[in-house]
Write a structure and sequence with these properties.
By secondary structure, the chain is of the alpha+beta class. The protein has four domains: 7-79, no CATH class; 95-202, no CATH class; 205-296, no CATH class; 314-546, no CATH class. Helices cover 42% and strands 17% of the residues. The chain is built from 20 helices and 17 strands. The chain has helices spanning 7-10, 24-34, 95-113, 117-122, 135-144, 148-155, 158-163, 167-173, 176-191, 212-226, 247-266, 271-287, 384-394, 397-408, 410-413, 431-438, 445-460, 471-489, 494-508, 519-524; strands at residues 38-39, 46-47, 49-53, 56-61, 64-69, 198-201, 242-245, 291-296, 306-309, 315-325, 334-343, 349-359, 368-371, 378-382, 513-515, 539-542, 547-550. The strands form five sheets. The chain has a five-stranded mixed sheet with strand order 6-7-8-17-9. A five-stranded antiparallel sheet has the order 10-11-12-13-14. A hairpin with an 8-residue loop joins strand 12 and strand 13 (368-371). Helix 14 crosses helix 18 and helix 16 packs antiparallel against helix 18. The two termini are 28 Å apart.
Length: 551
């Protein structure tokens, strides 16, 4: 079925097609005169109209004359509709999906706030974006559906206007209309925002109220202190894709961000404390229903989920180590765990889910990616520097075991020194050097194969089967996976394994950058707070910010 000629569509002029610029009522009369067929939307049956009375079309059906509402007739090419597609629609992906899903979430929320979402649905306007392309058409649409005060800036965004030509394919053919409706429904069922809000993609936040500017100062300070090659991605602090805010929130953020920036200049060594102040401010504005930072993930099917992240509550998350899964039939390692949701005081189980951190291959930059099967969304990933730092500084007994394995390996000792891994917090993994070695004329296989097999045997008690056609790639990637496996599996205590995975999980899911075993982690596992002697130096590098996740 195509778009129907609903009353609001039928009263407009055609924006394209053979009768472009003509009122659609006039086009209907031309089709009757020229005996051009009309198409019934529900059945796709073509009919010949004989008379138009208001919005009722009389047509011949066999020996009988029948009447049908124009609202049940398809907007075909003559009426300015899309021509029938002879091939499947091109898949919309990457940056286009990112921009369209965020911008249209703002638009759909605005429609809900303006009480015109039902009309938008009934009119089937989501099928009509091929006629909403120019600035005038966007303004007319926004005024008709009363959403201009909410999304005027977003509709004028150059990036949105660059991709608006894909709107019909995105909403209809790629079925994002239904996904957006489910996300909006879940958001309003949970929070019921009322009043006047500005709805913006994070990329379009005005400079004077952009909280990421403060984070960048903190992140650069952390980069310099730890020695990271680049800053920890801003999404690890707050991954919100869209921000909804009242005018009060806007003024408060402008004022407080100005104060924080002055403090950062005068006392940069306290930057993390200032970031915590910003975290508290954003949460307080949320509590007052003045600010909603929202992270969006594509929901599984048409049923969305919602959760708040970094919100102080009586429920805590605890990671229980399962196993290191260094498989025979893939190039990765999976660090499997159970994610437990429990009451802080009583430790009563609320929910539990199985998940894992999975290593990517060279084409994925050897990242660790978080997956919770059945959730319908990825939960974030970590670059090599970030996860090396967390593992080394939480419990490095596994890294020490890896270093001992290297000393025992003859093939590892034969690797040219400039391609070997280091033994420090940011270079104990061999990913960078081995990848460079693999790109040399001789490749990395002959140097790494024996070493990789010794690591693989250590985990599985058997050798990894290498194919002849992909040996270089397989040896390279399985070596990296095996090093990660040893660094985790070799941790001598269960608590050390769980704290390490929990710290990796926290950064991957934008809950903070932490290392060591904290008092909170011990208490969550049943230790009495008064009995805990803080022998291990736990450090919170930074706490992440409150946000809502819809997925």
């Amino acid at each position: 079925m195509g778009q129907k000629l609903t009353p609001s569509v039928f009263k407009k002029k055609a924006s394209k097609g053979p009768y472009k610029g003509k009122p659609r009522k006039e086009i209907a009369l031309i089709k009757i005169k020229k005996k051009l067929p009309f198409t019934i939307d529900k059945t796709n049956k073509q009919i010949l109209g004989v008379k138009l009375t208001g919005d009722k079309l009389s047509y011949i059906d066999g020996k009988n004359t029948k009447t049908i509402s124009m609202a049940d007739i398809q907007k075909d090419v003559d009426f300015g509709g899309q021509p029938k597609k002879t091939t499947a629609s091109a898949s919309i992906s990457g940056k286009i999906v990112e921009v369209m899903s965020e911008a249209f979430f703002c638009i759909y929320v605005a429609l809900k706030m303006a009480n015109t979402l039902d009309k938008y649905n009934k009119d089937e306007t989501y099928k009509n974006w091929d006629e909403i392309q120019s600035k005038k058409e966007l303004d007319d649409f926004a005024r008709e559906y009363k959403i201009l005060p909410f999304v005027e800036t977003e509709l004028n965004s150059s990036v949105f206007n660059q991709y608006i030509k894909f709107a019909n394919d995105f909403l209809v053919d790629n079925k994002w209309h239904e996904r957006l409706l489910s996300q909006v429904k879940k958001f309003f069922l949970t929070y019921s925002p009322k009043g006047q809000y500005k709805l913006l993609r994070a990329d379009n936040l005005p400079k004077d109220m952009d909280p990421y500017k403060v984070y960048e100062v903190v992140a650069n300070d952390i980069k310099a202190k730890i020695g990271f090659a680049k800053i920890v991605d801003k999404d690890k602090w707050n991954p919100a894709d869209v921000w909804f805010f009242t005018d009060t929130a806007r003024k408060t953020l402008i004022k407080e961000l100005g104060n924080l920036n002055e403090k950062l200049v005068k006392k940069p060594q306290s930057s993390v404390d200032y970031l915590n102040d910003l975290n508290q401010l954003i949460f307080k504005l949320f509590e007052k229903k003045q600010l909603y930072p929202i992270s969006l993930k594509a929901p599984k099917g048409t049923s969305a989920n919602i959760t708040s992240v970094n919100e102080d509550s009586d429920i805590e998350q605890v990671i229980k180590f399962d196993k290191v899964d260094l498989g025979q039939n893939n190039l990765d390692v999976k660090l499997r765990f159970e994610l437990i949701y429990q009451k802080k005081k009583t430790k009563k189980l609320i929910d539990k889910k199985s998940g894992y951190l999975k290593s990517k291959t060279d084409t994925g930059g050897f990242r660790l990616e978080m997956e919770i099967p059945g959730s319908g969304a990825r939960f974030g990933s970590l670059g090599t520097e970030n996860y090396q730092y967390i593992i080394f500084n939480t419990d490095k007994t596994g890294v020490n075991k890896l270093l001992r394995e290297r000393k025992k390996s003859n093939t590892y000792s034969s690797i040219p020194d400039n391609f070997k891994a280091g033994n420090k917090q940011l270079n104990w993994l061999g990913a960078s050097g081995y990848n460079k070695l693999s790109k040399t004329k001789g490749g990395a296989k002959n140097y790494l194969e024996g070493y990789m097999q010794s690591l693989f045997r250590n985990i599985n008690g058997a050798e990894f089967k290498i194919s002849k056609t992909r040996a270089e790639k397989e040896v390279l990637n399985k070596t990296i996976a095996s090093e990660i496996a040893i660094a985790i599996n070799g941790i001598t205590s269960k608590l050390g394994k769980e704290a390490t995975l929990e710290n990796l999980y926290s950064l991957a899911t934008s809950q903070g950058l932490r290392v060591g075993i904290s008092k909170e982690q011990l208490v969550a596992r049943g230790e009495k707070a008064k009995n805990i002697v803080d022998k291990n130096i736990a450090q919170t590098v930074f706490d992440s910010c409150f946000h809502i996740k819809i997925y």
